[in-house]
Amino acid sequence: MKHVIIYFLFILNVINLSAQISESTVKAGLIFRLTESIEWPSEGSIKKFTFGVLSNDSIIIKELKNVATLKKVKKKNVEVLINDEIVDYSALQGIFIDYDHINYLNAVAKQISNKKGILIVTYNSPELLLSMINIYKDNNDSTLRFKINKQNLDNGGFKYKHDLLLYGGTIMDIKDLFILTNEQLSEKTSQIDSINKQLSSLKKESRYYSERIQELSVKMQSALQQVKEREKEVTVLSNDIYKKDSELLKVNKELETQLYHQKTLAGKLHNTLDSISLVEKKLNQLNVLLEEKKKQVAESRAVINSQNVKIKKQEKGLFWLVVVGAILLILVTIVIIALNIKRRLARRLSSLVDARTKELYESQQYYLGLFNDSPVAIGEFDLSATLQYLKEKTIDFDDEQVFVEATEKVRIIDVNNKMQELFDAENKDMLINNYYKLFNNESLKGLKMFFEKLMLGEKHF
């Protein structure tokens, strides 16, 4: 490992010595050398290393692709994807972000934040907290150097050789760390001095309080003697109180016995009230049953009365039935005679009706043929509902809506074939049921004139 790091330093120093080796070539070689010092998580399952490059530098892109064809990483093939060729950053094993694409660093870091095993290498990145390895050029000697973000490498699940941190440095330089440690040490030393001063003052205070405690102990002893005297007085008073308490206990016992008697009486009274309430409920139930029985008796009486009335009616009906039966017998004989006469007349009438019906049917078929086959459109209309509607309305001959509604009330009884052909109807029912939908503005004007003459009583149109 030390030989590898020494080789890194050798490459970095050669940059200043030889103008023939371009900076892009060195950057490409440095990136691939850095991968040899890093171990990926689950490295054994990686079949091919895929690195993405975000850069407008065609030279470094060319150098990286050349190195990828000549070198292997961990004895495995390397594929380099450039800018738009990268579809999913989480599918990469590493990504190099050049200075001209450094504004993509934040978005890339967010996209792969939940994915471990993706190495982020930047060039001249001002945002060191998002990068894992940042390559930069030293302004003093124009040497390429690199800085390691140890925390990001650990968070990414990478393992690395510690010599890499020594030769490359970390985000916090060792010198800065030493200065910070000294500052913290001096701060802690000053805190310790202040604590020692506080301890010395506390010792003085403890001495003062110990003297005060001794004085207070003397006062306490005198106070204890006074307390003992007071205790004697308290024992005398407590004896008196005990006597009073015994008397009070007797009074309390008497009160308790009286309260017990009161409770027993209250319980009996409560039980009595409960029994009274139960009796009242039973009485109410009996009253309800009594009312129901009264209703049933009244209904029974009404039924008996109705039965009596029916019996009387039946007796009267029986009498009249006999009378009617006699009358019916007479009428039946008359009807039989009449039926015989009627049959004879019916036979003659039936023959006359059949002959007349045949004549009417032939006449009807003749006139129906004339009606249906007429070359003139003919329709039979019922205007009774329309006349009734126009009579009930206050007619304004300029209001066309009134005549539209009057038209809808016209009932067509029948139309001939020419009428059906004129309105281009599929059948008569369609024309009869929807005739008012077939009128246009000109037709409505003609109907308006027709309705006006009809309301004026004219018979010829």
Q: Give the termini distance in whole angstroms.
A: 123 Å
Number of strands: 10
Element-by-element helix/strand order: HHEEHEEHEEEHEHHEHHEHHH
Question: What is the share of helical residues?
Answer: 55-70%
Strand-residue proportion:
5-15%
Number of helices: 12
Strand ordering within the main sheet:
3-2-4-5-6-7
Rounded to the nearest angstrom, the radius of gyration is 63 Å
The assigned structural class equals alpha/beta
Low-confidence stretches: 1-21, 170-178
What's the main sheet like? 6 strands, mixed
Mean pLDDT: 78
Envelope shape = flat
Describe the structure.
The protein is α/β, with parallel strands linked by helices and 461 residues long. The protein contains 12 helices and 10 strands. It has helices at 2-17, 23-36, 58-70, 105-111, 150-155, 163-168, 174-372, 384-392, 400-408, 417-422, 428-434, 441-455; strands at 38-39, 49-54, 78-82, 94-97, 119-123, 133-137, 144-148, 159-160, 379-382, 411-415. It has a 6-stranded mixed beta sheet with strand order 3-2-4-5-6-7. Helix 2 packs across helix 3 (58-70) and helix 9 crosses helix 12. The radius of gyration is 63 Å and the shape is flat.
